[in-house]
């Protein structure tokens, strides 16, 4: 809920990737955020990154990826995105509380993963 206050229109733009909150207002070189970062600021984009398709309807979806073999197979890609955000924007400025008890989250919806896999081919 607090993260949503830091979306487009705010002086400070924050994005969450797997619970790590990054300040994407400017990259480490003082550059501007990408259009994607501006569009999805104020949201957790983990689910969309995991599926390879970040869209508004895939923002702020929280799942325990360790409860799904297919999601777990995509986890390396998510780790690459975490590395990208750390390299570009520095260390996280916060952490979403929902990920502190990730094991209590539901399993990812298999149908949505299958649908995303089909559309990427």
TrEMBL record:
<protein>
    <recommendedName>
        <fullName>Cytochrome b5 heme-binding domain-containing protein</fullName>
    </recommendedName>
</protein>
<dbReference type="InterPro" id="IPR036400">
    <property type="entry name" value="Cyt_B5-like_heme/steroid_sf"/>
</dbReference>
